[in-house]
Automatic annotation (TrEMBL), chain A:
Main location: membrane
UniProt cross-references to PROSITE patterns, sorted A to Z: ABC_TRANSPORTER_2
Name under which the protein is recorded: ATP-binding cassette domain-containing protein
Keywords per UniProt: Antibiotic resistance, ATP-binding, Nucleotide-binding, Transport
Membrane topology: Peripheral membrane protein
Domain of life: Bacteria
GO biological process: response to antibiotic
Occurrences of domain ABC transporter (ranges): 5-250
Automatic annotation (TrEMBL), chain B:
Tagged with keyword Transmembrane helix: yes
Coiled-coil residues: none
Full protein name: ABC transporter permease
Keyword flag Transmembrane helix: yes
InterPro entries on file: ABC-2_transporter-like
Amino acid sequence: MDGFITLDEVEKVFSVRRKTGFLRRERQEVRAVDSLSFTVARGEMVGYIGPNGAGKSTTIKMLTGILTPSGGRLRVAGIDPSRERSRLAHRIGVVFGQRTTLWWDLPLIDSYRLTHRMYRIPNARYRENLDRLVELLELRTLLDTPVRQLSLGQRMRGDIAAALLHDPEVLYLDEPTIGLDVVSKAKVRGFLRELNAAQGTTVLLTTHDLQDIEQLCSRVMVIDHGRLMYDGPLTGLHEAGESERTLVVDLERELPPVEVPSARVVRVEGPRQWLAFPAGQSAAPVVARLAAEYPLVDLSVREPDIEAVIAKMYAERAVS
Amino acid sequence: MGAGRLYATVALGGFRRYATYRAATAAGVFTNTVFGLILVYTYRALWDLKPHLGGYDQAQAITYVWLGQAFLSTLAISGGGVEDELMERIRTGDVAIDLYRPADLQLWWLAADLGRAFFQLLGRGVVPFVFGALVFPAYLPADAGRWAAFLVAVVLAMLVGFGLRYLVALSAFWLLDGTGMTQMTWLLGYFCSGMLLPLNVFPGALGTVVRALPWSSLLQAPADILLGHGDPLRTYLFQGAWAVVLLGAGRLLQSAATRRVVVQGG
């Protein structure tokens, strides 16, 4: 295996005690991750998505060494995370969107000084990295502000900088844009793109915000019920989910539903009609046919909503 | 050496964190002073009735009261140490962040608590003590060596105090809500450390037992050295032994807790 992160049939089973009677408890096994296998190459930026409770955080925790897999083989940079957690810690960075690693009551800079000592970063490299990160993440004016006074977006940028001071080869991001406004999200995404391009940092991104994935990741993995349901490019997800593009057509006047091969009318509202056709297909022949046979005023193509695609995948999985 | 600098930074951070809350510190100083006043008048009434109670004269009893007020927050005898934060982190799962860091959990929190304790000693302890010593006829040794010996016992008391509270905090891994546990230990600690009355006042078996418990390392042990009632070396040995036992137990409990988290999930 030449992957930087490799999972081979990884399992994580929790045993949960459930109350079944007045004093009776029963042990029940919960399979959070079920024979999960994937490989991430060095320098890749991969989106890792799935509904709540799908096993995303469990996977991340196993990748950091906080959780020990119940079965299978897992390696990050050639290290078995749960056996050599401290050694691995020097090579990975982790950002949890909903938790902070920063010192709440103290100025931001104090948390960075602490990170400096914790990871034993050589002084010159620490100064260089701090300078670069502070510049890119626009933290210069915030260094002396206590963390508790930072806005969520500022704090998130502060956390990302803290996770990168020791030059980790891989960065795990667990919902890095959660709760952020549009501008803050754009800043975080811009920075991550830059980081991946310039430093070649491998990034594994967990998110519920599909725009994160659309804008950052060329590859996406979908997990549900602890199993990998899809692994490939984002565009392939549309085909996998059998999604459709929509052509919105404005005609000169109200007409009965138009008839065009490989497209079907899904909605009519006065002179406006909605046509659906497979996402993998070009719009050109449909448009050409329409323009030739109908009094066309205007038209626009709507791409399928990726969220709908994924929701459909989850639903199909639940049925099967 | 690198690790030493890390924990020194953590301790310094602990000190500075508490230093940022100036209003809280001022309120604390006020509370400790008022509380000291109440206790001083109670003790004086008691010592008027029973002079040389527990081997202390009235001046020594007064000094004891103000030492207690200086140590209340320093040693977090009735709560307020880093264990509150640690328990909260265990409850919310934030402790996972602490676990993946390349640092030792116990040493990290010990350093943070020592930083906090030194701040509380200077910020909240010194003022009530000086006030008490100036306003009341307190016993103050003139021997600088005695003060130095006393300070060593204070540092050992900080270690024992942390050792106790760390065990309580780790119980949150199993209990999820540690409120009952902390309240019980505060009550126990308040009495057994000698905050209510000096432990050498208690007669018979009760006195023997409370003086042998770890809590007597907190207030009673340093107070006895300052008041010339205890042999420093023997006191250090007693405190040191409890510190080793408690911190050792903390390590065992910590590895059991992390194993539980690592295998069982947060």
